[in-house]
Amino acid sequence: MGDKNKLRRFKDNETFGNVIQPSREEVVNQGFKYKSHWNALYFKNTNPIIVELGCGKGEYTVGLAKKYQDKNFIGIDIKGARFWRGAKTAIEQKMNNVAFLRTQIELVADVFGENEISEIWITFPNPQIKYKRSKHRMTNPEFLDKYKHILKPEGIVHLKTDSEFMHGYTLGILEGLNQEILYSHHDIYVNHEAPEDVVGIQTFYEKQYLEKAKPITYLKFKLN
User: Fold this and answer.
1) Which of 10, 119, 128, 152 lies 20 to 30 angstroms, CA to CA, from 77?
2) Checking DSSP bridges between strand 181-185 and strand 217-222, what pairing results, if any?
3) Alpha-carbon torsion 103, 109, 113, 119, what sign?
């Protein structure tokens, strides 16, 4: 994407009513105004909140929001030029149950309150295969603790990835922590029992992986 295109998208995001772009200072030190108050202050309803972490172009956030209009969806990514597409689509289609938040995933417990979220989707994260990068792996124990804090007691986490490494690593972590694994498959498109939400929505990157015949894995679990 060219610099001019990025700048235009950044400017668009500033005008979009469904895009929230707090500074790190605001989130960490000043008390983010929507934390613990997303239902009351932003969505103005009591519907469950589902979050997509590393939402990219926002295909999952928008796709699920279309299907479940009685739920609220928030896509999170630090790259606003990417989720511009999802935000624009949601505005064009007058979707009131969608928001996009530009912030780092590591701050997830600073932007949501305890027990505020019903589900988390992690879609095609960077597996951070090198050991020195493992602290950035989105299903390491530190991140799982953050998710557990913001999830409701019966909250669910979904991990959809093209990385067999990430799938296996997460399974091992969950089993080591004695967490409840609800579903696991290493190639959802050969498994005819895969949930519709998993195979029915494909991201931009997922389509590229499928064209290269890369298996897509899926995990669904609770954090007790």
Assistant:
1) 152
2) antiparallel
3) positive
217-222 and 151-161 strand pairing:
antiparallel
Average pLDDT, integer, range 43-68: 97
What order do you get walking across the sheet with 98-102 strand by strand?
19-20, 98-102, 72-77, 49-53, 117-123, 151-161, 217-222, 181-185
Domains of the chain, by residue range, sit at 3-222
The answer to whether residue 215 scores a pLDDT higher than 90 is yes
pLDDT in tens, 171-205: 999 999 999 999 999 999 997 788 999 999 999 88
How far apart (Å, rounded) are the C-alpha atoms in residues 142 and 126?
A: 16
Structure tokens at 118: 């019903």
Nearest 5 degrees, angle CA 40-CA 17-CA 111? 50
Q: Please tell me whether the overall predicted TM-score, pTM, comes out greater than 0.85 for this model.
A: yes
Measure the CA–CA gap between 32 and 216, rounded to whole angstroms. 36
| Cβ atoms < 10 Å from Cβ of 103 | 20
DSSP single-letter state for residue 194: S
User: Residue 99: beta bridge partners?
Assistant: 74
What are the phi and psi torsion angles at 4 (to 5°)?
A: -65, -40
Amino acid at 218: Y
Give which of 130, 150, 140 is closest to 170, Cα–Cα. Answer: 140
Q: Cα-flanking dihedrals φ and ψ of residue 51, to 5°?
A: -115, 135
